[in-house]
Amino acid sequence: MIPAARHRFILDLLSKHQVLSINELAEKLDVSSMTIRRDIRKLEDKEEVSSVSGGVQLNNNLHNEPSYEIKSTLNSDRKSSIGIAASKFIPKNTSVYLDAGTTSLEIAKQISHRNDLVIITNDFVIASYFSRNSECEIYHTGGRIDKDNQSCVGNKVADFLSGINIDIAFISTSSWSLKGISTPSEQKVVVKQAVSKAAKTNILISDSSKYGRVATFHAIDIESFHTIVTDNAFPNNAVNELEKKGIKVVKDNVEFINKA
Fold first, then answer.
1. Residue 213 contacts residue 62 (beta carbons within 8 Å)
2. With contact defined as beta carbons under 8 Å apart, do 155 and 189 qualify?
3. Confidence band (pLDDT; 50, 70, 90) for 132?
4. Is-contact 117 126, C-beta < 8 A?
5. What is the pTM of this model?
6. DSSP readout, 174-211?
7. Is residue 250 within 8 Å of 229, Cβ to Cβ?
8. Is-contact 103 126, C-beta < 8 A?
9. Which of 5, 66, 101, 225 is the most exposed place for a label (fewest CB within 10 A)?
10. Quick one: which of 250, 212, 200 has its CA closest to 96?
C-alpha cells in the first residue's frame, strides 16, 4: 500500500476509534512500527493527527474559544502548576509579556510580589491584578477590546508590541499541535506574531487539554518557541518529537529528561 493510501486508512480508522496505538496500526496495515511512525509524522505536519500517550488521535477542530469566565473554571489545578513552573524562568530585572488568558494570570500571581519587573500585557484582568497587588511597572497594550476574553486584539496591539523590547514572552493558546499554535480569531494572529518577534525568548504555556486542537488561523510555528510549559498529562511521545526540534518541555514543574 502506498503512503497516501495508508494515510487515508489511518484517518478512517481514527474516525471510528478515539485513540489507536502504533502497534495496532502496524498490525492492521501489516507494516513496521517505524513505517507507522513516519506516516504519523506526515499526518502531524498536516495537523490532521496528534501523538498522545499510548498512540495517536485525530485532531479536534476548535471553532470558538470559551469566554474568560468559562476558561477560569477549566483545569484550574493544571494552570496553577504551569504558573508555578513558568514563573521560575523569569530572572531579575526582566521585561515580561503575559498573553491574555487564565494560565497567564496564574503566572501573574506567582510574580506579583516582585518589584524588579516590567510587565506588558493585553489582558485587562492581569493588568488590574498587578495594579492592585504589585509594585512592578505595568504596560497595557491598548487596542480593540475583545469583551469575551477581557483583552485587546488586532493591529493596534501589534503596533504597540512591535515598538517595545521584551525579554520573555509567555504566549498562551487554546489550540496547538506539533506544527504550531492556532486560533479561531483572525484578530489574535497579528498579536501573537508581533509579540513572538518582539521577544528574545518565547515560552508557550498551555495545559495538555489544548494539545491536538486545530483552529482556523495558524498563528506561530512551534519552532518559534524555546520552551513549552505544560502539565504531567502531556504525552511523552510528543515530548520526544518536540525535543528533536530543539524545544525544551517542562511538565508539572519538572523539566522532562529524555531517557530513550
1. yes
2. no
3. very high
4. no
5. 0.79
6. S-B-SSEEEES-HHHHHHHHHHHHHEEEEEEE--GGGB
7. yes
8. no
9. 5
10. 200
